[in-house]
Amino acid sequence: MNPDFVAVFWKEWKEILLERASGGSGLRPLIMVGLIGVVIPLRLDAQRYFSPRPLLGLIFVSLAAVLAVVPDAFAGERERHTLETLLASRLPDRAILFGKLAACLGYGWLLSIITIILGIITANAKNWNGHVLLYRDTASWLCLILLPPLVGGAVASAGVFVSLRAATVRQAQQTLMFALVAVVLGVSLGSGALPENVRMWFARILATWSGAQLVLAASAVVLAVDLVLILAAVSCFQRSKLVLD
Taking a C-beta distance cutoff of 8 angstroms, is the pair 186, 138 a contact? Predict the structure, then answer.
């Protein structure tokens, strides 16, 4: 592994764990971990809990965790007047960019894994019958493995792109939240405005495809979004312009 990337990743990771995650916005993902990892498995029976639908909560954990820390990636450095020092170092552009992105994504992924473990322990403690209860269907395991890092990657890439251009952390947070709301509203309103034949096509897919196929298709779409956002962040990262800003 590239030592420059590791150096940036480790610096960012320590800042996330010691500073950003301890703030007010950083506590919200931890509340979601407790809610989705403990409260929900206590309220659901084992059959309902160990199914794909409750796993959608993991997406919100990853999303909330990344949203809590990624606005600080570059906007925070700019506010603390440490961005110039970082950019004046001999670290390559890609090491700085991907080190910060990976640290934010890793934080969201870590909280998702903790949520999964807590949920399995809580569900087994509530429904213990001498056998360990786990997810059994392929769709559930695909959700566990693919969706949290992919969704977290999309938010982290968008957040780094916004943080590069934002003057303050608050501005980056507001821009990200506005973009997220716009995407949700756009999908909600746009789905109702689709032509009838397109809606029928989607309905046939939902009715005929297996859960595993639907998860893989959704993962492929999110992966494409990840790649587009990463390329946008790479194109926006121009050291000379950032120093002048």
Answer: no
